[in-house]
Amino acid sequence: MSRYVKDIATSTDADEIQRAVSAFLTGEGFHKQQYGHEDVWAKGSGFLVARQFIKAAPVDGHVHVEAWVKAFIGGEMGTEGVMAALPKRKLKESVVHLEQLVS
Fold it and tell me: Which domain holds residue 72?
């Protein structure tokens, strides 16, 4: 399964969105890091629980949101499906709250 992707319209200033996203995701236990060539927020070690990733970037009047779980055997999974169900459910909850925050 591929990443969850959504664009959310907003009239909020990009700097304010970045501050709100940073405060929210830090409070949820995510930390900012590089994933390939992308700036993302990550959570989990990948050892006992699959790693969770969120990317939230304000772009031209909207916020581009992506979310995925890193599969244990490589690849990425979106927020739906039965594989890695617990990390996906927790990630989906965080994404829903994030979308409410930026909309």
Answer: 4-102
